[in-house]
Amino acid sequence: MPTALTDLCRHPIVQAPMAGGASGPELAAAVCQAGGFGFLAAGYKTADGMYQEIKQLRALTDRPFGVNLFMPQPSLADTSAVEVYREQLAGEAAWYETELGDIDGPSDDGYEAKLAILRDDPVPVVSFTFGCPSRAVFDAFAKVGTYTVVTVTTAAEAQAAQWSGADVVCVQGVEAGGHQSTHRDDPHADGTGAGLGLLALLAQVRETVQIPVIAAGGLMRGAQIAAVLAAGASMAQLGTAFLVTPESGANPLHKQALTNPLFTHTELTRAFSGRPARGLVNRFLREHGPYAPAAYPAVHYLTSTVRKAAAKAGDAQGMNLWAGQGHRLAREMPAGRLVEVLMAELDAARAALGQDRGAAEPDVTGGAA
């Protein structure tokens, strides 16, 4: 077993696990082959669907890779707010000539079945979103040689992950696209500006935990990677930057929207899933975001049919267009080529500071500053 997560790849670049189809075997394989670290997103997939993608990825590359799991969410005790939201979305369903989804889908995302598969047929890395597993889960993965990563949005969450036995924390700044990986969904924090930017959060986490840190949130250029490595991260995780690559499974409308001048900015919203997520501001987000309840994954199931119908109709105004704050910097090129370009930019940024790649390698053994 390697002595550090960074021993699994040549470059300190992690391709984020983006659920919903973007992060499939083709994208992960391309990133791995280029020397980065690729991830499969198991969220919203069945346990067997996850396993089939793992087999596909293994056929595409012999390089190490990771699999991301969603933590189980509390069952929705009161559905009244979701039913009110259903009434508000009736016009959307009629417009797209579809029915609203059934909110009674599973809240555990097949978690236990996925854990069982990953223990029986281990992969190099497993990461967790929306919470932190028990020590027993971490111990079981340690026994089979699997590194574990927990995504965190506060220093307290990072400390809890370290105490529980995680090998690494992925620090997610508020700039990140897609869902905020808070361990406790607090609707009272909505609109308060409570989320921290990546550099501020990274500094806090580095002074709180002694395990290695991956930095995520709005990173689109090699110079930004250099900045987070200099700030103490071991690796940098990029999601939006890889969305527009041909290997990405994102909808073409989603890819086009990232650099379309029509979409000028992003916001955090509950409109599509019931959990705060950053996406491009479109009609659906503007009209329904202010009224969406804190009810994940019920709202995700409720809106799923409308989102699919909007995509089928070619209407980006009715889709969830997840994107980080740096979305306008997206570059359409193959994923492997993007890794090469990012590394060239990283080297240039280091050279500008009188460094070289070897001299500037970050501390990957962890340790508070």
Automatic annotation (TrEMBL):
Q: Which residues form a coiled coil?
A: none
What Pfam families does the record point to? NMO
Its needed co-factors are: FMN
> Which UniProt keyword terms apply here?
Detoxification, Flavoprotein, FMN, Monooxygenase, Oxidoreductase
SUPFAM superfamilies documented for this protein: Inosine monophosphate dehydrogenase (IMPDH)
Q: Which domain of life is it from?
A: Bacteria
Q: Which reaction does it catalyse?
A: 3 propionate 3-nitronate + 3 O2 + H2O = 3 3-oxopropanoate + 2 nitrate + nitrite + H2O2 + 3 H(+)
Against InterPro entries, the record matches this protein to:
Aldolase_TIM, NMO
By sequence similarity, the record places it as follows:
Belongs to the nitronate monooxygenase family. NMO class I subfamily.
Question: PANTHER family attached here?
Answer: NITRONATE MONOOXYGENASE-RELATED (PTHR42747:SF3)
Question: What is this protein's name?
Answer: Propionate 3-nitronate monooxygenase
